[in-house]
Amino acid sequence: MRCNLLYLCYKILYYFVMWKENLYQPVEVLIRNHEIFPIAEHQHSFFEMVYVREGTGRFYVKESGCKVEEVIYHAHSLFLIPPETTHCFTIDTHSEYVFIRFVLHYVEDYIGKYLAEIFRDSSRQAEISLNKSDENMASQLFDFIRKEEDNRQMGTNYLQQQWLNSILVLVARNIVHEAKDECLSVKYLTINETNPAVYMLQYIQQHIHQPELLRAESLSKIFHLSPDYIGIYFKRYYQETLQQYIGRNRLKMVENLLLNSSMTVKEIAYKMGYTDSCYLVKSFQKVYGISPLKYRQEHSQSNNLK
């Protein structure tokens, strides 16, 4: 009886508490090698592009009504996974992946709103088919990103950003061409037509340096929710509190500024909307275990040793 009850509880949690991963910076590159994929069926609150450098296996997405779309992958397979998409990888042979994770406002800020609209409408996409010329170019760019990640040094972030921006342009171009070939119209959605929970993340990321705009009272006016309910709404979708998400995002931006700029801690505190540099130092040390200046010094030394 007890075992049956535990099994029933597990099934309820499986169907109603989907594990969801959040991103705490506008864009991120990850290189991963796996014999067994470590994460089961899950969702993201951001876009994820996955390039398979080597290996074979299966990728599936679960659509509405529990319909499953399964694709057999191999070296050079490319996938674009929109936010809130239930998906999973299963591996047949050792696989190496390059993950590019990004939010729409990154595309808007660094490439343009036109391309951001293309990605916003890409929810029907799973596997991305590039023409032969673009496939060869994308393969080279992913190799550049991987090699630079293996030997990080001064300028690594800048170079990777240029390469991944080029990949995003190639993918967007092929999405449009495919839509034309299939006589489909690319539907451009306005920001109000998107999932409100996803737009809330975009809004937070865009205004992460303006804490006065991220208070419950301000957010409730924009998203037409009660100030008392907006925190509950956020946690229901993203499985962490609103303040935790904002805090992680701000500290990730602080980390990037420490590593990729010459700004002082005081200047960073002002730019990111902290009340003063002391509060920034205290918040940073609580998460990273060392002061911002020590963190910058240690990472600067490690880059110089490469």
TrEMBL record:
Q: Which residues cross the membrane?
A: none
Q: Supply the alphabetized keyword list.
A: DNA-binding, Transcription, Transcription regulation
Q: Which InterPro entries match?
A: ARD, Homeodomain-like_sf, HTH_AraC, HTH_AraC-typ_CS, RmlC-like_jellyroll, RmlC_Cupin_sf
Q: Which Gene3D superfamilies match?
A: Homeodomain-like (1.10.10.60), Jelly Rolls (2.60.120.10)
Give the top-rank taxon of the lineage listed in the UniProt record for this protein: Bacteria
User: Which SUPFAM superfamilies would you find in this protein's record?
Assistant: Homeodomain-like (SSF46689), RmlC-like cupins (SSF51182)
Q: Which GO terms describe its molecular function?
A: acireductone dioxygenase [iron(II)-requiring] activity; DNA-binding transcription factor activity; sequence-specific DNA binding
Quote the SMART domains the UniProt record gives.
HTH_ARAC (SM00342)
Q: Which residues form the HTH araC/xylS-type domain?
A: 198-298
Q: What is this protein called?
A: Helix-turn-helix domain-containing protein
Task: Please give the organism.
Answer: Bacteroides fragilis
